[in-house]
Design brief:
This protein is mainly beta and 627 residues long. The chain contains no helices and 53 strands. The strands form 20 sheets. A four-stranded mixed β-sheet has the order 4-11-10-7, with no helix packed on it. A four-stranded mixed β-sheet has the order 34-41-40-37, with no helix packed on it. Strands 5-9-8 form a three-stranded antiparallel β-sheet, with no helix packed on it.
């Protein structure tokens, strides 16, 4: 009923129908990571209703309440369940869709194949924990590793690349084999590819072959490498033994190649046939062989003399041993005998050969001319004379005043006093005879004398020296083993200058030999005079000026050094030049004058006089002062 202000009213009857709706509750996670899923359920509504999400950009939800959030959305979304049985009832929940974080990691530096693999961190730089696939880094191949955040972390997956560089194998030029004892090669510090590193062992042995390991420097991404160095052992040259020879025989020739095929040279180069010696073989360069020696024995030949005494029409001949130890004797190639006496030798020319145990022999020729009724004349004196030397002979049994003679005439001359002067150009046997003319029968006695050729001593050349150097010492024995004395006995170490000409002093030094059948010899020694270096005079300088530079070479082209080495520009001084070693020059000096800086002074004048153009003090040719 309705009543107005005037009290008037109206009443109506109606029939009201009331419908009661259910309360629908939606439950589930109120926070979802963008791109993740969540399940929602409803209570209070009839099953079979409709699920929806607002805004639509937040994701999608299926009939089972499975919400798939969009990875591109971040913010709040309302998820609603509508009960279609009434068409009016619905329930909802507000869900926060959180943006997913991106895990970040420090870059992993490249590694070398075979290095210790890096360990992947289980927590990102921005604090997100998770797991990796693959879980372990390979140390042999490059790869990409995927990080999956732990459940509930609201983070996306991330990847990390690990680069594995392959190992480079360093290579080196092959080292040629060396000989034991040679200078060892130096191992290169850098490979052909430019890889630096170190070696073990660090130094190459020059006595034994070996393998040397190269370890690349840290970070070189290279493997170790090895180099083999072969050290060949020194081979000892071998030679067939040289049979002993007799003095005066033809000397053997030393072989240029050893029995085991090594070539080289000998010192001395020629075998002496007068004295035993040791000869040193030096292998040719690069033959990997040591030196070797060969001994050559030169047995002295025996020396004999023969004398004969007439006994009627034949002579008794006696052999006298001058040197050596002969063991057998034969007359005119007859049967050898041990005795030294031969009886009943007929007149004529004969030869007796004496041989020792080494097979070395001496033969002496003689002649007999026995006349019945002649006295026995015996000639005595030296039975061996050096060619060019003299000897004195005497006779017994004959009458004085007879005639001395020598056969052959080329052997020398003998005067009436028995003084024999042998010829320097002759070598061999000579028969010296004394003939007694008092009987008219031509009675004579003789002796066979061996005239030995004189050896010529030789010496190694002496290198020139500078005047004032230590003088070389002359050897007391020649290369052939001949001893003697020198005249002058001491080498001069000075040179002389004549006028403006430089004279090289040549010293001739004859060798005087005592008891040796050898000629004199000379050796030249050149003594170069000391040159005095000269230099262009250095003009005076002022204190503080740029100092002049001393020349490294004199006007004559002599190099050397200075003391002091640098010219002072504050004080005058003398600088000494010392020539380089072997320059054959004396020291020299150069004076450098350093004039002090002078302060100009002027007389003071009155009035408006002009200033003087020159100071009161003027010093010679060099004025050291201000304006």
């Amino acid at each position: 009923m309705a009543t107005d202000a005037n009290g008037c009213s109206d009443s109506e009857f109606c029939n009201e129908l009331h419908t009661w709706l259910p309360t629908i509750t939606v439950t589930g996670s109120q926070s979802v990571c963008a791109g993740a899923t969540a399940v929602y359920t409803q209570t209070g509504g009839v099953a079979g209703g409709v699920w929806s999400v607002v805004p639509a950009a937040a994701g999608s939800i299926d009939a089972g309440g499975n919400f798939a959030s969009s990875s591109a959305f971040a913010g709040n979304a309302t998820i609603t369940y509508t009960d279609n049985s009434t068409g009016l009832a619905a329930g909802s929940i507000v869900v926060a869709v959180d943006a997913a974080s991106v895990p970040t990691f420090a870059a992993i530096a490249p590694i070398c194949s075979g290095d210790v693999a890096p360990v992947l961190p289980t927590t990102s730089s921005n604090g997100i924990s998770g797991t990796w696939l693959p879980a372990v880094v390979s140390n042999t191949a490059s790869g990409t590793y995927t990080f999956t955040p732990a459940a509930g972390a609201c983070a996306s997956t991330a990847t990390v690349n690990v680069t594995v560089n392959p190992q480079t194998t360093p290579t080196f030029a092959a080292i040629a084999p060396i000989c034991s004892g040679d200078v060892a090669p130096v191992l290169p510090a850098v490979s052909i590819e430019g890889i630096a590193g170190t070696w073990l062992p660090a130094v190459v042995s020059n006595t034994a072959s070996g393998t040397y390991t190269f370890t690349p420097a840290a970070g070189a991404c290279a493997s170790t490498a090895t180099v083999n160095v072969t050290v060949n052992p020194q081979t000892t040259p071998t030679f067939a033994a040289i049979a002993p020879i007799c003095s005066g025989d033809v000397a053997p020739v030393l072989p240029a190649t050893s029995s085991n095929g090594i070539t080289g040279t000998w010192l001395p180069a020629v075998v002496s046939n007068t004295a035993s010696g040791t000869y040193t073989f030096t292998p040719a360069a690069g033959s990997c062989a040591s030196t070797a020696t060969v001994n050559v024995t030169v047995n002295a030949s025996p020396q004999i003399s023969v004398s004969s005494n007439c006994t009627g029409a034949t002579a008794d001949v006696t052999v006298t041993i001058v040197s050596g130890t002969p063991t057998t004797y034969s007359l005119d190639n007859g049967t050898a005998q041990a005795g030294t006496a031969f009886a009943g030798v007929a007149n004529g020319n004969h030869t007796i050969v004496a041989t020792d145990a080494n097979g070395c022999s001496d033969s002496e020729a003689f002649a007999t001319n026995c006349i019945p009724g002649c006295p026995t004349i015996t000639v005595t004196g030296s039975q061996s004379v050096c060619a060019g030397a003299t000897a004195v002979y005497t006779q017994t049994g004959g009458v004085a005043g007879g005639v001395w003679s020598v056969v052959p005439a080329a052997a020398g001359t003998i005067d009436a006093g028995g003084n024999f002067a042998s010829s320097g150009a002759f070598a061999g046997n000579a028969t010296i005879t004394y003939t007694d003319n008092s009987t008219g029968l031509g009675c004579a006695g003789s002796i066979v004398v061996a005239v030995d050729a004189a050896s010529v001593p030789t010496f190694a050349a002496i290198a020139p020296i500078c005047s004032g150097d230590v003088a070389p010492v002359l050897p007391a024995v020649s290369i052939e083993g001949i001893a003697g004395t020198w005249l002058p006995a001491v080498v001069s170490n000075t040179a002389r200058r004549v006028g403006s000409w430089l004279i090289r002093q040549v010293v001739l030094i004859p060798l005087r030999l005592w008891g040796a059948c050898a000629s004199t010899a000379s050796v030249n020694v050149t003594v170069n005079p000391q040159t005095t270096p000269t230099f262009t005079a250095i003009a005076p300088i002022c204190s503080g000026d740029v100092a002049p530079v001393l020349p490294a070479v004199s006007i004559e082209g002599i190099a050397g050094t200075w003391l002091p080495a640098v010219v002072s520009n504050t004080a005058s001084g003398t600088y000494t030049f010392t020539p380089a070693a072997g320059a054959c020059a004396s020291t020299a000096s150069v004076d450098v004058t350093v004039n002090p800086q002078t302060t100009p002074t002027f007389a003071i004048v009155g009035g408006d006089s002009l200033l003087p153009a020159v100071s009161i003090r003027v010093w010679g040719l060099v004025t050291c002062g201000g304006k």
